[in-house]
Design the sequence.
């Protein structure tokens, strides 16, 4: 198994750092899947995560000037690593004005992802910083749990409002209740509701727009006013929103009534899918 | 005790930081309102009085209680160290961000060609262990670079961060003086107004021990103030030193005998000097027994550790540059059992 990649462009480096920061906010430990064309950050839906799962995908050629990998075997040309997300984002933080960044898989005393950064200091001399991030190689038999989640047909698909606004509202709601109901219809309306014994609070978002539906029949059959709703753990939603530092290029929310809410975001060229199951 | 405090102008005392900090906290309002500040002691009441003479005839007085204390004295001649580096605090600050706050120790490795700051090597075993980081800095980034002996010293990271915060306020370069592992190192800041010396213990090489030795940092900060131009009211020379001793203990999260652990935690907050025992073959440092009114651990530390040793600071400004710190036998209220240790000699 081999992996070796290099970033020399500052914009690519900053973008990669932002992605890594976002992942660090969304998942404490995650899986990094390396394949010849892509890098994926994966969180699989375990009970420990509260059933939340995440799939983040980026095309390697949009970031790396050099990229070489050799997977476990010829038929399974992929590498699955488990790492603590914050370790990677912190290591990248030191690469802010780097001339070059190299990542490679090493085995010093234990398997590591070595991030080596060449900094240009003020006095024009080069400074080399190296971080060895401990990782765990995930054996092939566990790969099946880490595949791209299939997105079931949504009852309602809607574009999200500005995430920062959503976040500040959800943050306040968190003080009142642990559960939040997210509901939306095909008329571009989205509501965030909390209900307790003493008080009910609803925030209404209008004119959001709905993405064109995949199947014509399904959307026509459904009453546009009818809301599809899911009751979720408010902290999971807040964690998701907190991870979005920059407003994404595209943000869609898919609701499967009483089952799951699926967020599909696009940050420039990085796609992020986040699933929050209904609270049982 | 000795001739040092025979004159009434030498008062060795300690003040709580929590008492002093709020008084000088708001720099802006101090600059705007305060015309003069007078600081004097009233030993009869064990108080330090800080008087602010503000605008509009307002006078604000703060009375801060002090505790008499015997300052720790260090025997350390920094000019005799084989390795000296002088660096701008900003460069060190950039290196510091590499390491997480959970790092307890950091290692400085030098050769005549390069300087490397790296995480103290532990054997990480799983994902949750910290990242191992290292940064190489070229010799040309230093204001002064003199390496006599290749060396790798490990010292307390928290102390380094604290020293850096202090130095960033003064904008003066930091000088690092050190030798081989086990021997203390000094970080000094020499500004026009003050000189600060931080003496840190470094981890001694311990090939025989399987588990990692305890890490202890003691530091001493000394300030001297420039003589104020005219201070007729004070009536005495303001240049008398008031050495401040800051003693902090870092309790590593490592295995070590339970009894020492509780002693350590008890000491952590009371700031008492800690009695150390060094092995005879350690280095040519002398042991000193210092005890304060607080508890001193009875049981010896099983781990080896480089010792802090203390000497008096010369009260004369000129002398301090030429002579090593004189040693001082400190009085102890309770006799401590010294394990063949020798007291620091005069």
Sequence:
């Amino acid at each position: 198994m081999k992996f070796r990649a290099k970033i020399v462009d500052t914009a690519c480096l900053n973008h990669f750092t932002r992605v890594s920061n976002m992942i660090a906010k969304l998942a404490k430990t995650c899986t990094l899947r390396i394949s010849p064309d892509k890098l994926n950050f994966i969180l699989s839906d375990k009970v420990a995560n509260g059933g939340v799962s995440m799939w983040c995908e980026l095309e390697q050629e949009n970031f790396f000037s050099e990229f070489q990998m050799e997977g476990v075997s010829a038929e399974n040309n992929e590498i699955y690593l488990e790492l603590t997300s914050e370790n990677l984002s912190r290591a990248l933080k030191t690469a802010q004005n780097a001339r070059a960044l190299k990542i490679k898989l090493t085995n010093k005393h234990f398997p590591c992802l070595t991030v080596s950064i060449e900094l240009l200091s003020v006095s024009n001399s080069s400074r080399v910083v190296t971080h060895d991030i401990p990782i765990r190689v995930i054996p092939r038999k566990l790969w099946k749990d880490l595949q791209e989640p299939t997105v079931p047909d949504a009852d309602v698909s809607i574009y999200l409002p500005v995430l920062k606004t959503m976040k500040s509202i959800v943050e306040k709601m968190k003080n009142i209740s642990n559960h939040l109901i997210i509901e939306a219809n095909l008329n571009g309306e989205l509501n965030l509701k909390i209900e307790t014994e003493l008080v009910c609070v609803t925030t209404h978002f209008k004119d959001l727009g709905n993405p064109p539906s995949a199947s014509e029949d399904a959307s026509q059959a459904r009453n546009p006013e009818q809301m599809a709703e899911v009751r979720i753990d408010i902290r999971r939603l807040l964690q998701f929103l907190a991870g979005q530092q920059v407003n994404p290029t595209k943000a869609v929310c898919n609701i499967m009534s009483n089952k799951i809410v699926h967020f599909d975001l696009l940050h420039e060229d990085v796609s992020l899918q986040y699933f929050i199951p209904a609270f049982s | 005790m000795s001739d040092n405090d025979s004159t009434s102008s030498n008062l060795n005392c300690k003040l709580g930081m929590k008492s002093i900090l709020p008084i000088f906290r708001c720099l802006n309002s101090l600059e705007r309102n305060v015309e003069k500040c007078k600081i004097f002691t009233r030993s009869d009441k064990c108080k330090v009085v800080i008087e602010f003479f503000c605008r509009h005839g307002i006078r604000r007085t703060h009375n801060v209680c002090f505790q008499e204390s015997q300052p720790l004295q260090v025997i350390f001649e920094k000019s005799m160290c084989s390795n000296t580096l002088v660096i701008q605090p900003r460069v060190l600050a950039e290196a510091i961000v590499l390491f997480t706050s959970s790092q307890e120790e950091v290692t400085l490795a030098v050769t005549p060609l390069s300087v490397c700051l790296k995480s103290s090597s532990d054997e990480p075993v799983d994902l949750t262990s910290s990242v191992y980081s290292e940064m190489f800095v070229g010799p040309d980034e230093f204001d002064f670079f003199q390496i006599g002996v290749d060396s790798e010293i490990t010292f307390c990271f928290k102390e380094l961060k604290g020293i850096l915060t202090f130095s960033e306020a003064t904008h003066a370069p930091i000088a690092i003086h050190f030798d081989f592992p086990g021997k203390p190192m000094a970080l000094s800041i020499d500004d026009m107004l003050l000189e600060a010396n931080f003496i840190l213990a470094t981890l001694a090489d311990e090939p025989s021990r399987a588990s990692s030795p305890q890490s202890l940092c003691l530091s001493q900060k000394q300030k001297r103030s420039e003589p104020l131009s005219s201070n007729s009211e004070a009536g005495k020379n303001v240049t008398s030193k008031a050495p401040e001793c800051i003693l902090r203990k870092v309790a590593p999260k490592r295995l070590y005998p339970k009894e020492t652990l509780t002693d350590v935690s008890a000491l952590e907050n009371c700031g008492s000097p800690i009695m150390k025992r060094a092995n005879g073959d350690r280095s040519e440092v002398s042991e000193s027994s210092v005890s304060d009114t607080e508890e001193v651990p009875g049981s010896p530390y099983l781990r080896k550790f480089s010792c802090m040793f203390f000497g008096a600071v010369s009260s004369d400004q000129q002398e301090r540059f030429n002579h090593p710190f004189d040693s001082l036998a400190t009085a102890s209220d309770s006799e401590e059992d010294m394990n063949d240790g020798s007291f620091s000699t005069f």
